[in-house]
Specification:
434 residues, alpha/beta, Aspartate Aminotransferase, domain 2, Aspartate Aminotransferase, domain 1, 4-stranded antiparallel beta sheet, 13 strands, binds pyridoxal-5'-phosphate
Length: 434
């Protein structure tokens, strides 16, 4: 093994991180190659800097004038230069402040500086690569974003274990979660858990009480001897529409919960800041008892996976995001967006109480939802995929999840179009049911 990887392993081996690293994770390190040497040179090479593979003239990256014309607010460095492997430090610090603001129970220093990754997908991918070996188990409630399967099973050859997302009383299934963890603790030494709230596809976030119970159960599972990697996929963070939704990330409850729990926060600008194609996400770690050296070693491992896969995240998106976050009207603009989403949410809730919805209630059962971009119907006695195809023939796009669920992204429908959309869905379902 490379001596630098070995050194990082030695630093991490006294903590939960050392115990949960995969074989790939153990081999990862950040090479003292071109990127590291170029970083040293940018601090010290006052005369000539002939390190990095960019075209530079008069100290600035050279760009095509036609491109420059498109980007009046960015200098050429902000527009086209490579970003550092872990992202621009100023953006990382700004995101750290956002995490603290949005999760008041977290304290600075409880967690690592967020590392920039090219979208949340990359965060999930890097977490799986660093902490999953073939055959390892990942516990996920049965409503989950389909790409998890491709990454976990397709790439990592690990196994998804699931339990029902909803309890019979239409809340998050805390009892099922506890049961699944108890079973894992009786068989395994380590387990990854993925929590995604607000959830895709259900649009449901646990209540404050249920979230507290989940954190307690994870602590008890760790007490029972299981090392846990808990990945909090906070893609839709902030879009909580009901009073009793837990508005902090589970990451905040787990960050300092237990020496056997490594909490990994995967979040980003994608949905929170309405920049889906920017490819700017963040990965942040915390575990009780990790030293600053261990934080650094874990970030070096992560930089190793970034460098060996995508090398770095887009610089132009990072520059634009940072400027946006620094704008004096940033928060106000986000509040306005929240109100637009909440209005759409409330419109859907009202429509689901209406006569058309009630008439279709035996075939299209709305699952609980209180947050995020989506709601889903459980299809009873009709095939969700057939319903989707029939709706397509009427010019309406929805997502079928297997044969059982139909997902509606109310985030992408104007409030005034919500009624005709849902009427079309109810009527098509009733026709299909015959
Ligand atoms: C739950 C969840 N996680 C992650 C992602 C991916 O986000 P990104 O586009 O930043 O990779 C999505 C996108 O739909 C999602 O729904």
């Amino acid at each position: 093994m490379n001596p630098l990887a070995q050194q990082l392993n030695t630093t991490l081996d006294t903590s939960v991180v050392g115990r949960v690293l995969s074989q790939v994770g153990r081999r990862m390190f950040f090479p003292k190659g071109i990127v590291a040497q170029a970083a040293e040179a940018s601090a010290k090479a006052h005369r000539f800097n002939a390190t990095v593979g960019m075209a530079v003239g008069k100290g600035q990256p050279i760009t095509l004038p036609s491109l420059e014309k498109q980007l009046p607010s960015l200098n050429t460095k902000e527009a086209v230069a490579y970003a550092p492997t872990g992202g621009f430090p100023a953006l990382r610090q700004a995101w750290e402040q956002q995490i603290l603001q949005k999760n008041p129970s977290l304290k600075q220093g409880d967690f690592t500086l967020p590392m920039v990754i090219p979208g949340l997908t990359a965060g999930i991918f890097h977490a799986e690569e660093l902490f999953l070996d073939p055959g390892d188990e990942v516990l996920i409630a049965d409503m989950f974003w389909g790409n998890y399967r491709l990454i976990i099973e397709g790439r990592r050859e690990a196994k998804i274990k699931s339990f029902a997302y909803f309890s019979p009383d239409r809340r998050f299934n805390v009892a099922g979660f506890a049961e699944a963890l108890k079973d894992a603790a009786s068989r395994l030494k380590k387990l990854m858990v993925i929590l995604n709230f607000p959830n895709n596809p259900s649009g449901y976030t646990p209540t404050k009480d249920d979230a507290a119970a989940m954190a307690r159960i994870l602590g008890e599972t760790a007490d029972a001897g299981l090392d846990l990697v808990v990945v909090c996929d906070d893609a839709y963070f902030g879009l909580f529409f009901e009073e009793d939704c837990e508005t902090e990330s589970l990451f905040a409850k787990l960050a300092q919960a237990h020496e056997k729990i490594l909490a990994v926060k995967v979040d980003g600008a994608t949905k929170e800041d309405l920049v889906w194609g920017f490819r700017v996400g963040f990965m942040t770690y915390a575990a009780k008892g990790l030293s600053p050296d261990q934080h650094t070693a874990l970030l070096q491992k992560t930089m190793g996976t970034i460098r060996s896969s995508v090398s770095s995240s887009p610089g132009i998106s990072q520059s634009l995001l940072l400027k946006t976050m620094n704008s004096p009207t940033y928060q106000q603009e986000k509040d306005e967006f929240f109100q637009v989403m909440k209005e759409r949410y409330l419109r859907v809730k009202t429509l689901l109480e209406g006569p058309e919805a009630q008439a279709a209630r035996d075939i299209l059962v709305p699952l609980p939802f209180n947050s995020g971009y989506f709601m889903s119907f459980a299809c009873q006695g009709i095939d969700a995929e057939q319903l989707r195809l029939n709706l397509l023939d009427e010019g309406v796009g929805t997502i079928a999840i297997g044969t059982e669920y139909l997902r509606i992204a109310f985030s992408s429908i104007d409030s005034e179009d919500m009624e005709p959309l849902f009427q079309t869905i109810f009527q098509a379902a009733r026709r299909l049911a015959g």
